[in-house]
Design a protein that fits this description.
The chain is an alpha+beta fold and about 180 residues long. The protein has four helices and seven strands; from the N terminus they run βαββααββββα.
Length: about 180
């Protein structure tokens, strides 16, 4: 028997590394809401404009000191993959996200005031991982302080559910070359 390891959490260098058309679509939408000098506020996001993406979206609220992530809205597809609707809960209380690297991604969004793209894994409960791409987009009610984020998880690429055995574990450990 082998120990089941989480696939590595990866940050992508740029949007060019993202495979998910959903993430690219949300990126284009978010950019359309940005001004030349300010990040968009939550009020600029119109759910009707991005209806097909709604099941894959997460809306978070951030507090700086101590750093805290609260999930204000979790889409139905995300809740299904996680086997948990964690709407209204603090990041620390979401078992499926423990050690996923997602908190580091939110910290990176706050530090850079720019979107973060990446890939991580979610334990499927049957000796397999659901590997998904994600993106986190900063939002700011005052145009400066990042106090909310719009995020998306996309786990519908053909290789997303990966059974872990000794041969495949080695393949998952190698980051993509870019």
């Amino acid at each position: 028997m082998y120990e089941l390891e989480r696939p590595p959490h990866l940050f992508y260098a740029a949007l060019d590394d993202v495979q998910s058309p959903r993430i690219r679509q949300l990126h284009d939408y978010w950019r359309s809401k940005c001004s030349d000098v300010a990040l968009p506020p939550r009020s600029a996001i119109e759910p009707a404009d991005i209806r097909p993406l709604l099941p894959h979206l997460i809306l978070t609220e951030l507090t700086p000191e101590p750093f805290r992530i609260v999930y204000r809205l979790v889409g139905t597809a995300v809740a299904k993959w996680h086997k948990d609707d964690f709407t209204g809960r603090d990041h620390e209380s979401v078992e499926s996200l423990a050690e996923s690297g997602i908190a580091d991604s939110y910290r990176r969004v706050v530090a850079t005031a720019a979107p973060v793209f990446g890939r991580t894994g979610l334990y499927a409960g049957d000796q397999s991982w659901i590997v998904f791409e994600y993106a986190i987009f900063p939002l700011s009610d005052d145009g400066v302080t990042i106090n909310k984020c719009l995020a998306i998880e996309s786990a519908d690429q053909p290789e997303v559910q990966v059974r872990l055995d000794s041969a495949q574990t080695a393949d998952l450990a190698a980051p993509p070359t870019h």
